[in-house]
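Q: Given only this backbone (392 positions), what sequence would you predict?
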């Protein structure tokens, strides 16, 4: 019953991608910004461009001489810079911003003013709302499209899941529940690095958050100002090893996010569940298939077994039309092509700078609520910096 609609959607997406690939400029000139001392090149944000025949990597920047030499060799590029501020010399169309998020704001401002038309940036977006606003404003000022590497956001199965929810397949949507990897990075660190993926996916289904209430714990007790670590450059200020948060949203459907350090099997909980009155849709981040459907009221135990049915780009229980889809999405090929299409069509990428800012705002609201004793805080936040940074 789902197949016709989803195959039509898939065909339209495929046609759009093919059109983009068939009508590029002579070659899209890509420059790669890395830092072998700090974050390196993200999740292969340097080599992803080798998968696109319509792209030519023209330069690499890395302050580490050995790292620069190795990356130039790997990418078969001859032009390298120790200082990323020199990247405008090669007149790139697109710049990949690959290192840790503490460098994102400064790099993005330089790239936006360089004449480039697009930025593909590693996640998390940046360390604070102040930095996020600087990036968003610079991109708007210079007409630059920024795509943030929450790669699951480009998965062709995601619109299928949304249509299933809209069609009432799982009944009335009651809540969304997300978890991080809950490994050694449990809590706020997990929320920043991996939970940002989950929050980005959650708001795709619920719309914007309107309020948050949360607590941050260290070994089961609420963290205090004495627990805050202010020397971790990538996070500005961080504390605790567990976080529990609830977001109200404009759709009325709440989002819950939890992360507890070493909670159990690492990575197993990493994802999002959409819980309805007639079933559950489970999304496992970075997995193939991306989603599964379990029909039946989740609050009503039954004697007969229930079966999780895979959801693919073609629909529920249908074979995946593209056997390589997991690799295409995880390698960022899908995201890169959407960024190119966004430049050509003068639209925002599916995961844009504004989307990245929203995720930063949600993480900021978790800390702000905790600082205020777990009280409900409303969006938009009037808190440009990390709330733990000045907490006394």
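A: Predicted residues:
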């Amino acid at each position: 019953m789902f197949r016709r609609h989803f195959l039509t959607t898939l065909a339209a997406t495929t046609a759009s991608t093919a059109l983009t690939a068939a009508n590029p400029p002579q070659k899209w000139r890509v420059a790669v910004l890395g830092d072998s001392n700090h974050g390196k090149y993200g999740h292969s944000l340097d080599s992803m461009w080798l998968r696109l025949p319509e792209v030519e990597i023209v330069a690499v920047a890395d302050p580490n001489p050995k790292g620069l030499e190795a990356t130039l060799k790997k990418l078969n590029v001859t032009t390298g810079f120790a200082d990323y501020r020199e990247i405008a010399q090669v007149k790139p169309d697109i710049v990949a911003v690959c290192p840790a998020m503490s460098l994102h704001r400064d790099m993005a401002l330089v790239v936006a003013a360089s004449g480039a038309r697009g930025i593909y940036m590693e996640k998390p977006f940046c360390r604070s709302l102040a930095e996020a606003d600087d990036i968003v404003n610079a991109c708007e000022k210079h007409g630059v499209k920024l795509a943030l590497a929450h790669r699951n956001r480009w998965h062709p199965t995601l619109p299928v899941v949304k249509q299933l929810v809209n069609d009432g397949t799982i009944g009335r949507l009651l809540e969304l529940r997300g978890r991080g990897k809950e490994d050694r990075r449990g809590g706020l660190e997990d929320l920043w690095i991996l939970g940002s993926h989950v929050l980005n996916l959650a708001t795709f289904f619920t719309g914007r958050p309107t309020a948050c209430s949360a607590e941050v714990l260290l070994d089961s007790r609420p963290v205090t100002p004495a627990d805050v670590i202010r020397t971790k450059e990538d996070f500005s200020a961080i504390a605790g090893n567990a976080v529990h948060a609830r977001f109200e949203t404009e759709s009325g459907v709440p989002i819950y996010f939890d992360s507890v350090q070493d909670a159990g099997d690492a990575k197993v909980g990493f994802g999002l569940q959409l819980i309805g009155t007639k079933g559950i849709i489970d999304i496992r981040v970075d997995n193939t298939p991306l989603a599964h459907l379990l029909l039946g009221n989740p609050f009503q135990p039954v004697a007969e077994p229930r079966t999780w049915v895979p959801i693919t780009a073609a629909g529920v229980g249908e074979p995946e039309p593209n056997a390589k889809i997991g690799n295409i999405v995880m390698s960022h090929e899908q995201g890169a092509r959407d960024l190119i299409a966004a430049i050509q069509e003068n639209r925002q990428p599916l995961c844009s700078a504004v989307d990245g800012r929203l995720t930063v705002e949600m993480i900021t609201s978790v800390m702000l609520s905790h600082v205020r004793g777990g009280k409900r805080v409303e969006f938009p936040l009037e808190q440009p910096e990390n709330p733990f940074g000045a907490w006394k």
